[in-house]
Write a structure and sequence with these properties.
3 helices; single chain; 113 residues; alpha+beta; 15% strand
């Protein structure tokens, strides 16, 4: 069980409330930023303003049939194994797409000029 001193959150396999109704449009943002229309740039900025930045987890462990993740900020979340597997796969795919877009974006300082 998690110590009461840690804030604990349950992650369910559903779309976050702030993205509800925008999923089709969110997928259209999966391209280099230099290719965004002004409205897509505005939408991307709005999505970022509502999201919480996340760093490398301090630790991940299994306990009582759940997967626990202690975030870089000390917050702990837990989820069912099926959710952890799906989340891991989706994060990996999104991370790959993001890196590809970064390389393709001429305005990104990390890309060769």
């Amino acid at each position: 069980m998690v110590a009461a001193a840690f804030p604990t959150y349950v992650i369910y396999p559903k779309v976050p409330a702030f993205l509800a109704g925008t999923i089709g449009r969110v997928m259209a943002l999966d391209k280099p930023a230099r290719m965004f229309t002004p409205s897509e740039q505005s939408e991307a900025t709005e999505n970022l303003s509502r999201a919480k930045a996340y760093g490398r987890p301090r630790r991940v462990w299994v306990e009582d049939g759940h997967v626990f993740v202690e975030g870089y900020d000390g917050e702990i979340v837990f989820m069912l194994p099926e959710v952890a597997i799906t989340m891991g796969r989706e994060l990996g795919e999104a991370g790959t797409a993001s890196l590809i877009n970064r390389v393709m974006d001429d305005n990104d300082p990390a890309s060769p000029q």
